Amino acid sequence: MSTAIPYDSDAAHPTPLTFQWTRVETSDEVSYEATGTCPVCGCAMTRHWTFGQHLLAKGGFHGRRNEPGPQAYHTLCRCRTTHLGRPPHEEFGCGALLVVAPPTLDDGPTP
Ligand SMILES: [Zn+2]
Ligand SMILES: [Zn+2]
Predict the structure, then answer these.
(1) What is the pLDDT of residues 14-45, one digit of tens each?
(2) How far is the CA of 12 from the centre of ligand 2 (A)?
(3) Residue 105 lies inside a defined structural domain of this protein
(4) N or C, where is the chain less crowded by C-beta within 10 Å?
């Protein structure tokens, strides 16, 4: 894998990407994992989003969505390649802002 592409925090890919979504369910929450290739640097990346709220936090808002919904997802590139010039506080990615199309999961209506 090439590291020739430098980190660029101004990079963006506004066209929604079709990533592979995987639904991961635990006892009290559901998370979705999107896997795909960053079009800016060409590396594979994975990003998780968690849905659902803990019942204890009555009325609390954790900045999460309750469910996936139809909106696109924004994420920074999360690839594991070390791109040149990446700031030390950034652990992953090439700095590009990506838009990921929402999951089209076929598991029928939720009760
Ligand atoms: Zn990237
Ligand atoms: Zn990359």
Answers:
(1) 999 999 999 988 887 888 899 999 999 999 99
(2) 13
(3) no
(4) C
